Protein backbone atom coordinates (compact mmCIF):
# COMPACT_ATOMS: atom_id res chain seq x y z
CA UNK A 1 0.00 0.00 0.00
CA UNK A 2 1.39 3.40 -0.98
CA UNK A 3 0.71 5.21 2.26
CA UNK A 4 2.21 2.55 4.51
CA UNK A 5 5.42 2.82 6.52
CA UNK A 6 8.72 2.01 4.85
CA UNK A 7 9.72 -1.59 5.68
CA UNK A 8 13.11 -1.00 7.31
CA UNK A 9 13.93 -4.68 7.81
CA UNK A 10 13.11 -5.82 4.28
CA UNK A 11 14.40 -2.58 2.76
CA UNK A 12 14.21 -1.81 -0.95
CA UNK A 13 14.11 -5.51 -1.81
CA UNK A 14 10.31 -5.38 -1.28
CA UNK A 15 9.90 -2.42 -3.62
CA UNK A 16 8.47 -3.94 -6.76
CA UNK A 17 6.61 -2.51 -9.77
CA UNK A 18 3.33 -2.24 -7.85
CA UNK A 19 4.83 -0.05 -5.16
CA UNK A 20 6.79 2.13 -7.58
CA UNK A 21 3.69 2.70 -9.70
CA UNK A 22 1.63 3.19 -6.54
CA UNK A 23 3.72 6.28 -5.85
CA UNK A 24 4.30 7.33 -9.45
CA UNK A 25 0.70 7.25 -10.72
CA UNK A 26 -0.88 9.60 -8.13
CA UNK A 27 2.23 11.78 -8.36
CA UNK A 28 1.75 11.88 -12.13
CA UNK A 29 -1.73 13.25 -11.54
CA UNK A 30 -0.32 16.04 -9.36
CA UNK A 31 2.46 16.86 -11.80
CA UNK A 32 0.42 16.94 -15.00
CA UNK A 33 -2.60 18.71 -13.50
CA UNK A 34 -1.02 22.16 -13.56
CA UNK A 35 0.55 21.92 -17.05
CA UNK A 36 -2.79 20.65 -18.38
CA UNK A 37 -4.47 23.63 -16.77
CA UNK A 38 -1.86 25.99 -18.25
CA UNK A 39 -2.55 24.55 -21.69
CA UNK A 40 -6.27 25.06 -21.05
CA UNK A 41 -5.52 28.62 -19.93
CA UNK A 42 -3.55 29.22 -23.14
CA UNK A 43 -6.37 27.76 -25.26
CA UNK A 44 -8.92 30.07 -23.56
CA UNK A 45 -6.71 33.17 -23.81
CA UNK A 46 -5.56 32.24 -27.31
CA UNK A 47 -9.05 33.02 -28.63
CA UNK A 48 -8.37 36.66 -27.72
CA UNK A 49 -5.56 36.78 -30.32
CA UNK A 50 -1.77 36.53 -30.61
CA UNK A 51 -1.10 39.68 -28.50
CA UNK A 52 -3.03 38.39 -25.48
CA UNK A 53 -1.40 34.97 -25.84
CA UNK A 54 2.05 36.60 -25.96
CA UNK A 55 1.16 38.67 -22.86
CA UNK A 56 0.16 35.49 -21.01
CA UNK A 57 3.39 33.84 -22.19
CA UNK A 58 5.59 36.62 -20.78
CA UNK A 59 3.62 37.06 -17.54
CA UNK A 60 3.41 33.31 -17.04
CA UNK A 61 7.15 33.04 -17.67
CA UNK A 62 7.90 35.45 -14.81
CA UNK A 63 5.49 33.75 -12.39
CA UNK A 64 6.67 30.29 -13.40
CA UNK A 65 10.28 31.16 -12.73
CA UNK A 66 9.40 32.21 -9.17
CA UNK A 67 8.18 28.72 -8.38
CA UNK A 68 10.96 27.06 -10.32
CA UNK A 69 13.61 29.00 -8.41
CA UNK A 70 12.29 27.63 -5.12
CA UNK A 71 12.08 23.93 -5.92
CA UNK A 72 13.85 23.12 -2.65
CA UNK A 73 10.49 23.69 -0.94
CA UNK A 74 9.31 20.54 -2.72
CA UNK A 75 12.38 18.50 -3.62
CA UNK A 76 14.52 19.43 -0.64
CA UNK A 77 11.63 18.75 1.73
CA UNK A 78 10.97 15.39 0.09
CA UNK A 79 14.64 14.41 0.38
CA UNK A 80 14.84 15.29 4.08
CA UNK A 81 11.41 13.86 4.96
CA UNK A 82 12.03 10.62 3.06
CA UNK A 83 15.33 10.00 4.88
CA UNK A 84 13.69 10.42 8.29
CA UNK A 85 10.69 8.36 7.22
CA UNK A 86 12.97 5.53 6.05
CA UNK A 87 14.82 5.66 9.36
CA UNK A 88 11.51 5.19 11.23
CA UNK A 89 11.13 8.81 12.39
CA UNK A 90 7.73 9.80 10.98
CA UNK A 91 7.34 12.70 13.43
CA UNK A 92 10.65 14.14 12.29
CA UNK A 93 9.52 13.79 8.66
CA UNK A 94 6.38 15.80 9.45
CA UNK A 95 8.38 18.47 11.27
CA UNK A 96 10.28 19.03 8.03
CA UNK A 97 6.92 19.87 6.42
CA UNK A 98 6.01 22.37 9.15
CA UNK A 99 9.28 24.26 8.79
CA UNK A 100 9.14 24.19 4.99
CA UNK A 101 5.65 25.73 5.21
CA UNK A 102 6.91 28.57 7.43
CA UNK A 103 9.71 29.20 4.94
CA UNK A 104 7.19 29.20 2.07
CA UNK A 105 5.05 31.91 3.68
CA UNK A 106 8.01 34.16 4.55
CA UNK A 107 9.67 33.86 1.15
CA UNK A 108 6.36 34.22 -0.67
CA UNK A 109 5.42 37.54 0.92
CA UNK A 110 8.90 38.93 0.24
CA UNK A 111 8.61 37.98 -3.43
CA UNK A 112 5.20 39.64 -3.72
CA UNK A 113 6.56 42.94 -2.36
CA UNK A 114 9.62 42.96 -4.62
CA UNK A 115 7.95 41.86 -7.86
CA UNK A 116 4.92 44.12 -7.47
CA UNK A 117 7.38 47.02 -7.40
CA UNK A 118 9.30 45.83 -10.48
CA UNK A 119 6.66 43.99 -12.53
CA UNK A 120 6.40 46.68 -15.21
CA UNK A 121 10.13 47.07 -16.02
CA UNK A 122 10.61 43.30 -15.75
CA UNK A 123 7.92 42.48 -18.31
CA UNK A 124 9.22 45.21 -20.61
CA UNK A 125 12.74 43.77 -20.38
CA UNK A 126 11.54 40.29 -21.35
CA UNK A 127 8.93 41.31 -23.93
CA UNK A 128 11.09 43.82 -25.80
CA UNK A 129 8.01 45.87 -26.76
CA UNK A 130 5.41 48.00 -25.00
CA UNK A 131 2.35 46.22 -26.43
CA UNK A 132 3.27 42.75 -25.14
CA UNK A 133 4.65 44.24 -21.89
CA UNK A 134 1.36 46.07 -21.18
CA UNK A 135 -0.64 42.86 -21.51
CA UNK A 136 1.85 40.86 -19.43
CA UNK A 137 2.07 43.45 -16.65
CA UNK A 138 -1.70 43.63 -16.16
CA UNK A 139 -1.88 39.84 -15.81
CA UNK A 140 1.19 39.59 -13.57
CA UNK A 141 0.14 42.24 -11.02
CA UNK A 142 -2.88 40.14 -10.09
CA UNK A 143 -1.24 36.71 -10.38
CA UNK A 144 1.64 37.66 -8.04
CA UNK A 145 -0.66 37.63 -5.01
CA UNK A 146 -0.80 33.85 -5.40
CA UNK A 147 2.94 33.36 -4.85
CA UNK A 148 2.76 32.54 -1.08
CA UNK A 149 -0.04 30.10 -1.87
CA UNK A 150 1.97 28.44 -4.65
CA UNK A 151 4.94 28.01 -2.31
CA UNK A 152 2.74 26.56 0.47
CA UNK A 153 1.45 24.01 -2.03
CA UNK A 154 5.02 23.14 -3.03
CA UNK A 155 6.02 22.57 0.61
CA UNK A 156 2.89 20.46 1.16
CA UNK A 157 3.71 18.26 -1.81
CA UNK A 158 7.24 17.85 -0.45
CA UNK A 159 6.43 16.51 3.02
CA UNK A 160 3.53 14.34 1.84
CA UNK A 161 5.75 12.70 -0.78
CA UNK A 162 8.42 12.19 1.87
CA UNK A 163 6.05 10.13 4.04
CA UNK A 164 4.87 8.31 0.89
CA UNK A 165 1.35 9.75 0.87
CA UNK A 166 0.60 10.60 -2.72
CA UNK A 167 -3.21 10.41 -2.90
CA UNK A 168 -4.00 13.46 -0.79
CA UNK A 169 -1.78 15.86 -2.78
CA UNK A 170 -3.54 14.74 -5.94
CA UNK A 171 -6.96 15.51 -4.45
CA UNK A 172 -5.82 18.90 -3.12
CA UNK A 173 -4.19 20.07 -6.36
CA UNK A 174 -7.03 18.87 -8.56
CA UNK A 175 -9.59 20.65 -6.35
CA UNK A 176 -7.76 23.95 -6.82
CA UNK A 177 -7.31 23.53 -10.56
CA UNK A 178 -10.96 22.60 -11.10
CA UNK A 179 -11.92 25.92 -9.51
CA UNK A 180 -9.46 27.75 -11.78
CA UNK A 181 -10.51 25.77 -14.85
CA UNK A 182 -14.19 26.60 -14.42
CA UNK A 183 -13.59 30.28 -13.67
CA UNK A 184 -11.06 30.89 -16.46
CA UNK A 185 -13.38 30.89 -19.53
CA UNK A 186 -16.14 32.53 -17.50
CA UNK A 187 -13.99 35.52 -16.51
CA UNK A 188 -11.92 35.79 -19.71
CA UNK A 189 -14.89 35.69 -22.11
CA UNK A 190 -17.75 36.76 -19.82
CA UNK A 191 -19.67 33.48 -19.87
CA UNK A 192 -22.65 32.56 -17.64
CA UNK A 193 -23.23 36.15 -16.61
CA UNK A 194 -19.66 36.74 -15.36
CA UNK A 195 -17.90 40.02 -16.24
CA UNK A 196 -15.77 39.87 -19.40
CA UNK A 197 -12.31 40.63 -17.97
CA UNK A 198 -10.14 39.50 -20.89
CA UNK A 199 -6.60 38.49 -20.02
CA UNK A 200 -6.87 39.66 -16.39
CA UNK A 201 -9.69 37.16 -15.88
CA UNK A 202 -7.11 34.41 -16.33
CA UNK A 203 -5.06 35.81 -13.44
CA UNK A 204 -8.10 36.04 -11.13
CA UNK A 205 -9.06 32.44 -11.94
CA UNK A 206 -5.51 31.28 -11.14
CA UNK A 207 -5.57 33.06 -7.80
CA UNK A 208 -8.90 31.54 -6.75
CA UNK A 209 -7.66 28.00 -7.37
CA UNK A 210 -4.43 28.62 -5.47
CA UNK A 211 -6.41 29.70 -2.38
CA UNK A 212 -8.26 26.37 -2.41
CA UNK A 213 -5.19 24.15 -2.90
CA UNK A 214 -2.98 25.89 -0.32
CA UNK A 215 -5.79 25.85 2.24
CA UNK A 216 -6.21 22.09 1.88
CA UNK A 217 -2.47 21.45 2.38
CA UNK A 218 -2.47 23.61 5.52
CA UNK A 219 -5.46 21.76 6.96
CA UNK A 220 -3.72 18.42 6.34
CA UNK A 221 -0.60 19.58 8.18
CA UNK A 222 -2.54 20.89 11.19
CA UNK A 223 -4.41 17.58 11.46
CA UNK A 224 -1.13 15.67 11.86
CA UNK A 225 -0.95 17.14 15.40
CA UNK A 226 2.75 17.98 15.33
CA UNK A 227 4.22 21.18 16.86
CA UNK A 228 3.60 24.11 14.53
CA UNK A 229 6.07 26.60 16.02
CA UNK A 230 8.99 27.75 13.83
CA UNK A 231 12.27 25.90 14.49
CA UNK A 232 15.22 27.90 13.13
CA UNK A 233 17.60 24.92 13.37
CA UNK A 234 15.54 22.83 10.93
CA UNK A 235 14.89 25.77 8.64
CA UNK A 236 18.63 26.53 8.49
CA UNK A 237 19.35 22.93 7.48
CA UNK A 238 16.68 23.14 4.80
CA UNK A 239 18.15 26.37 3.49
CA UNK A 240 21.62 24.80 3.26
CA UNK A 241 20.23 22.04 1.05
CA UNK A 242 18.06 24.59 -0.72
CA UNK A 243 21.10 26.70 -1.59
CA UNK A 244 22.35 24.18 -4.12
CA UNK A 245 18.89 23.51 -5.50
CA UNK A 246 18.37 27.27 -5.80
CA UNK A 247 21.60 27.75 -7.75
CA UNK A 248 20.63 24.81 -9.95
CA UNK A 249 17.23 26.42 -10.54
CA UNK A 250 18.94 29.69 -11.43
CA UNK A 251 20.74 27.86 -14.23
CA UNK A 252 17.41 26.54 -15.53
CA UNK A 253 15.82 29.94 -15.34
CA UNK A 254 18.74 31.69 -17.03
CA UNK A 255 18.10 29.33 -19.93
CA UNK A 256 14.32 29.59 -20.12
CA UNK A 257 14.09 33.33 -19.43
CA UNK A 258 16.76 33.95 -22.07
CA UNK A 259 14.84 31.75 -24.50
CA UNK A 260 11.63 33.70 -23.87
CA UNK A 261 13.41 37.04 -24.19
CA UNK A 262 15.10 36.08 -27.46
CA UNK A 263 11.87 34.62 -28.87
CA UNK A 264 10.10 37.93 -28.07
CA UNK A 265 12.67 39.76 -30.22
CA UNK A 266 11.52 37.65 -33.17
CA UNK A 267 7.90 38.84 -32.80
CA UNK A 268 4.63 37.89 -31.11
CA UNK A 269 4.15 34.77 -33.26
CA UNK A 270 7.59 33.42 -32.33
CA UNK A 271 7.19 33.95 -28.59
CA UNK A 272 3.68 32.44 -28.68
CA UNK A 273 4.94 29.38 -30.59
CA UNK A 274 7.92 28.99 -28.27
CA UNK A 275 5.72 29.18 -25.18
CA UNK A 276 3.17 26.74 -26.60
CA UNK A 277 5.79 24.06 -27.28
CA UNK A 278 7.53 24.86 -23.99
CA UNK A 279 4.27 24.18 -22.15
CA UNK A 280 4.01 20.83 -23.94
CA UNK A 281 7.62 20.15 -22.90
CA UNK A 282 6.74 21.04 -19.32
CA UNK A 283 3.79 18.67 -19.50
CA UNK A 284 6.04 15.84 -20.67
CA UNK A 285 8.61 16.74 -18.02
CA UNK A 286 5.94 16.37 -15.36
CA UNK A 287 4.84 13.02 -16.78
CA UNK A 288 8.42 11.71 -16.68
CA UNK A 289 8.99 13.31 -13.28
CA UNK A 290 6.35 11.03 -11.78
CA UNK A 291 8.82 8.17 -12.00
CA UNK A 292 11.66 10.48 -10.95
CA UNK A 293 9.79 11.44 -7.78
CA UNK A 294 9.07 7.77 -7.04
CA UNK A 295 12.84 7.29 -7.35
CA UNK A 296 13.52 10.26 -5.07
CA UNK A 297 11.07 9.09 -2.40
CA UNK A 298 12.09 5.42 -2.40
CA UNK A 299 15.84 5.98 -2.85
CA UNK A 300 15.80 8.50 0.02
CA UNK A 301 13.94 6.04 2.26
CA UNK A 302 16.30 3.20 1.31
CA UNK A 303 19.40 5.25 2.07
CA UNK A 304 17.82 6.45 5.33
CA UNK A 305 17.35 2.78 6.26
CA UNK A 306 20.98 1.96 5.33
CA UNK A 307 20.16 -0.07 2.20
CA UNK A 308 22.67 1.02 -0.48
CA UNK A 309 22.26 -2.06 -2.77
CA UNK A 310 18.50 -1.56 -2.75
CA UNK A 311 18.91 2.12 -3.63
CA UNK A 312 21.14 1.26 -6.60
CA UNK A 313 18.68 -1.38 -7.81
CA UNK A 314 15.84 1.13 -7.66
CA UNK A 315 17.91 3.60 -9.65
CA UNK A 316 18.48 1.08 -12.45
CA UNK A 317 14.88 -0.10 -12.63
CA UNK A 318 13.23 3.30 -12.60
CA UNK A 319 15.65 4.75 -15.16
CA UNK A 320 14.92 1.85 -17.54
CA UNK A 321 11.17 2.34 -17.15
CA UNK A 322 11.45 6.08 -17.69
CA UNK A 323 13.49 5.64 -20.88
CA UNK A 324 11.03 3.19 -22.43
CA UNK A 325 8.10 5.44 -21.52
CA UNK A 326 9.85 8.48 -23.03
CA UNK A 327 10.42 6.69 -26.34
CA UNK A 328 6.71 5.83 -26.49
CA UNK A 329 5.80 9.49 -25.87
CA UNK A 330 8.19 10.62 -28.61
CA UNK A 331 6.45 8.32 -31.10
CA UNK A 332 3.03 9.78 -30.16
CA UNK A 333 4.18 13.39 -30.66
CA UNK A 334 5.97 12.51 -33.88
CA UNK A 335 2.74 11.08 -35.27
CA UNK A 336 0.73 14.11 -34.10
CA UNK A 337 2.97 16.84 -35.50
CA UNK A 338 0.26 18.28 -37.77
CA UNK A 339 -2.76 17.90 -35.47
CA UNK A 340 -1.63 18.64 -31.91
CA UNK A 341 -0.55 22.30 -32.39
CA UNK A 342 -3.94 23.14 -33.93
CA UNK A 343 -5.64 22.23 -30.65
CA UNK A 344 -4.18 25.41 -29.13
CA UNK A 345 -4.16 28.03 -31.86
CA UNK A 346 -5.48 28.67 -35.38
CA UNK A 347 -3.01 31.53 -36.05
CA UNK A 348 -1.09 30.62 -39.23
CA UNK A 349 2.10 32.47 -38.23
CA UNK A 350 2.21 30.79 -34.82
CA UNK A 351 1.63 27.35 -36.37
CA UNK A 352 4.41 27.92 -38.89
CA UNK A 353 6.94 28.54 -36.12
CA UNK A 354 5.61 25.67 -34.00
CA UNK A 355 6.40 23.26 -36.83
CA UNK A 356 10.00 24.50 -36.92
CA UNK A 357 10.39 23.70 -33.21
CA UNK A 358 8.54 20.38 -33.30
CA UNK A 359 11.44 18.23 -34.55
CA UNK A 360 13.78 19.45 -31.80
CA UNK A 361 11.03 18.78 -29.28
CA UNK A 362 10.44 15.18 -30.40
CA UNK A 363 14.14 14.32 -30.57
CA UNK A 364 14.76 15.50 -26.99
CA UNK A 365 12.02 13.42 -25.35
CA UNK A 366 13.98 10.10 -25.05
CA UNK A 367 17.02 11.91 -23.61
CA UNK A 368 14.73 13.57 -21.07
CA UNK A 369 13.53 10.15 -19.92
CA UNK A 370 17.02 9.31 -18.70
CA UNK A 371 17.87 12.78 -17.38
CA UNK A 372 14.76 13.21 -15.26
CA UNK A 373 14.90 9.70 -13.75
CA UNK A 374 18.52 10.09 -12.68
CA UNK A 375 17.83 13.60 -11.41
CA UNK A 376 15.25 12.00 -9.11
CA UNK A 377 17.73 9.38 -7.91
CA UNK A 378 20.41 11.96 -7.13
CA UNK A 379 17.95 14.34 -5.45
CA UNK A 380 16.71 11.48 -3.26
CA UNK A 381 20.31 10.83 -2.29
CA UNK A 382 20.82 14.50 -1.38
CA UNK A 383 23.44 14.87 -4.13
CA UNK A 384 22.38 18.46 -4.76
CA UNK A 385 25.90 19.90 -5.01
CA UNK A 386 26.76 17.69 -7.99
CA UNK A 387 23.51 18.57 -9.75
CA UNK A 388 24.17 22.25 -9.05
CA UNK A 389 27.63 22.15 -10.62
CA UNK A 390 26.72 20.14 -13.70
CA UNK A 391 23.56 22.11 -14.45
CA UNK A 392 25.48 25.38 -14.23
CA UNK A 393 28.13 23.98 -16.56
CA UNK A 394 25.53 22.80 -19.08
CA UNK A 395 23.91 26.26 -19.07
CA UNK A 396 27.17 28.20 -19.40
CA UNK A 397 28.84 25.92 -21.95
CA UNK A 398 25.90 24.59 -23.93
CA UNK A 399 22.84 26.78 -23.81
CA UNK A 400 23.69 30.44 -23.26
CA UNK A 401 26.36 30.79 -26.00
CA UNK A 402 24.00 29.29 -28.59
CA UNK A 403 20.96 31.32 -27.52
CA UNK A 404 22.69 34.68 -27.77
CA UNK A 405 24.31 33.71 -31.06
CA UNK A 406 20.80 32.91 -32.29
CA UNK A 407 19.80 36.50 -31.49
CA UNK A 408 22.94 38.09 -32.93
CA UNK A 409 22.89 36.02 -36.13
CA UNK A 410 19.09 36.02 -36.52
CA UNK A 411 18.82 32.22 -36.49
CA UNK A 412 15.24 32.50 -35.32
CA UNK A 413 13.32 29.95 -33.30
CA UNK A 414 15.51 27.06 -34.52
CA UNK A 415 18.54 28.68 -32.88
CA UNK A 416 16.73 28.91 -29.55
CA UNK A 417 15.87 25.22 -29.55
CA UNK A 418 19.38 24.26 -30.65
CA UNK A 419 20.59 25.83 -27.41
CA UNK A 420 17.99 23.96 -25.37
CA UNK A 421 19.10 20.72 -27.06
CA UNK A 422 22.72 21.30 -26.08
CA UNK A 423 21.62 21.92 -22.50
CA UNK A 424 19.73 18.60 -22.26
CA UNK A 425 22.51 16.53 -23.87
CA UNK A 426 25.20 17.88 -21.53
CA UNK A 427 23.00 17.15 -18.50
CA UNK A 428 22.41 13.63 -19.83
CA UNK A 429 26.15 12.93 -19.90
CA UNK A 430 26.63 14.34 -16.41
CA UNK A 431 23.93 12.32 -14.61
CA UNK A 432 24.84 9.06 -16.34
CA UNK A 433 28.47 9.40 -15.25
CA UNK A 434 27.45 10.12 -11.66
CA UNK A 435 24.93 7.27 -11.47
CA UNK A 436 27.44 4.72 -12.77
CA UNK A 437 30.10 5.88 -10.30
CA UNK A 438 27.94 5.01 -7.24
CA UNK A 439 29.38 7.95 -5.28
CA UNK A 440 25.89 9.19 -4.37
CA UNK A 441 24.96 6.33 -1.97
CA UNK A 442 25.47 8.08 1.40
CA UNK A 443 23.61 6.28 4.21
CA UNK A 444 21.73 7.57 7.28
CA UNK A 445 18.70 9.62 8.35
CA UNK A 446 20.42 12.95 7.66
CA UNK A 447 20.80 14.28 4.14
CA UNK A 448 24.56 14.70 3.41
CA UNK A 449 25.63 18.29 4.02
CA UNK A 450 26.25 20.00 0.66
CA UNK A 451 29.75 21.19 -0.08
TrEMBL record:
Membrane topology: Multi-pass membrane protein
GO cellular component: plasma membrane
Pfam family, one: MatE
GO molecular function: antiporter activity; xenobiotic transmembrane transporter activity
Regions crossing the membrane: 20-40, 52-76, 97-119, 139-160, 172-192, 204-224, 245-263, 283-306, 318-344, 356-374, 386-407, 413-433
Family: Belongs to the multi antimicrobial extrusion (MATE) (TC 2.A.66.1) family.
Protein name: DNA damage-inducible protein F
Amino acid sequence: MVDSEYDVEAGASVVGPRRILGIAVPTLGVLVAEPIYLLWDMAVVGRLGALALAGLAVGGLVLGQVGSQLTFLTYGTTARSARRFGAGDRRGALEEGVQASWAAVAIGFLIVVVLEAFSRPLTRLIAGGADIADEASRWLRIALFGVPLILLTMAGNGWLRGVQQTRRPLAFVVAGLVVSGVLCPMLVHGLAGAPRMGLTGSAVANLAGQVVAAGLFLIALVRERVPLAPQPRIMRAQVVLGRDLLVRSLAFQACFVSAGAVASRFGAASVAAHQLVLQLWNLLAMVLDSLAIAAQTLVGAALGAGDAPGARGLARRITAWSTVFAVMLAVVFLAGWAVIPQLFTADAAVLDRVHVIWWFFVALIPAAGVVFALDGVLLGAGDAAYLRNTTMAAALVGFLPVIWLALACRWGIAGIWSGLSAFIVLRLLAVVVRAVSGRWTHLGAEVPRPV
